[in-house]
Give the backbone structure.
Amino acid sequence: MTKRKIVIALGGNAILTDNPSAQAQQKALKQTADYLVQFVKNGDDIVVTHGNGPQVGNLMLQQAAADSLKNPAMPLDTCVAMTQGSIGYWLQAALTEALKENDINKNVVSLVTQVEVSEKDTAFSHPSKPVGPFLSKEDADTEMATSDATFIEDAGRGWRKVVPSPKPITIKEIKVIDTLVSNGVIPVTVGGGGIPVIKDENGRYTGIEAVIDKDFASQTLAASLHADLLVILTNVEHVSINYKLPNEKNLTKATVKQMKNYIEQGQFLPGSMLPKVEAAVNFVEANPSGKAVITSLENIQAVIDENGGTIITSGSD
């Protein structure tokens, strides 16, 4: 089988369970790494990305609780970097151990990654990305009354803080990532969507308070690397239409045109499946020879066999 270059975007369930402790997250990532190594055993080159929503939210709460003149709270972009580091460290260690157990001699490195966004992005005037834990309406009201934070009700599960979510433009460290992949190294990168930075007219980068969607950052990364496959992992094996209705249907294969039609029909929930589908479509549009798959972590072997998950193609093959 021909070696493929694959970008794998891990969903939150691959990292965090009901227990937010470091030990529990490391245990979850050990199992995740065992699945990911299947790609390497197949001869593929992989690049791994991951989310950080709950982790960065918890870190922000810790920062706020300890905030003082002598120990000021870190801003959001720095918290993104900090969680990139911690999750990257855990995942790097788990993958290294899984490779060793399978007698595979490969290096893994986690890379603190900056992603350029535009200061003119309309997201900055319309915060929409939920971060952190779910609160009751009363607690959310208290937070909004004592700060400039915005909270919204999220999918019937409680109230969450929302921050701007600008679209990624470029991956600042893309040449480094490409070099690593070309030399057989497995990079863990654009964690949490990457650290959002803005470039000024002199080419200097400055971090900004925002969160970039992990799936859009992964799509941008995959397109920049000319990847053969973008795998977006979530908690279901397939994307479905008519979700939770009597005529619900799992999608196994679909073209970009078909998925765009489903998007226009409002088939996918914003903040849930919609960004994953949009990211998959964007990648295939930018790289028509590539494919995107949306599926679960447990379904990886079927993805390797090219008959699992929801496979999205340009429709020209």
